[in-house]
Design goal:
The chain has 91 residues and is an alpha+beta fold. Helix content is 27%, strand content 14%. The protein has a three-stranded mixed sheet, with no helix packed on it.
Length: 91
C-alpha cells in the first residue's frame, strides 16, 4: 500500500475497502497475527494479497475490470479516490 500515494496528487486519497477482494489462501490464517502486530503494520507487510493496483476513472472502471477478467486474470474494484491529503488508507 506504500506505493499508491506516489501516484496521487496531494489533494486526493485512496480509500481501500478491506474484504472487497479475494484473499490468497493462507492469509486468512494470519488474522491473529494481525491483531498482535497491529492492523497497519500487518497490512503493509503482507499487502493483503493485492499484487497490483490500477487507478482509473470511475466511468471506465467496469470496462477495465471486464477487460482484465477476459484475459483470465482475477481483478476487483477495491476502493475509490476521494478528496484528501495524498494518502492511501484501508477501512
Amino acid at each position: 500500500m506504500d506505493n499508491i500515494p506516489r501516484v496521487l496528487p496531494k489533494s486526493l486519497d485512496v480509500v481501500i475497502k478491506k474484504g472487497s477482494w479475494e484473499m490468497l489462501p493462507g492469509l486468512q490464517d494470519h488474522r491473529g497475527k494481525e491483531r498482535r502486530a497491529g492492523r497497519t503494520n500487518f497490512i503493509k507487510s503482507l499487502t493483503m494479497g493485492i499484487g497490483m493496483v490500477g487507478i482509473v476513472s470511475a466511468d471506465k472502471a467496469d470496462a477495465v475490470l471486464k477487460f482484465i477478467k477476459a484475459q483470465k486474470h482475477k481483478a476487483w474494484i477495491i476502493g475509490e479516490v476521494v478528496k484528501g491529503k495524498g494518502e492511501a488508507r484501508v477501512v
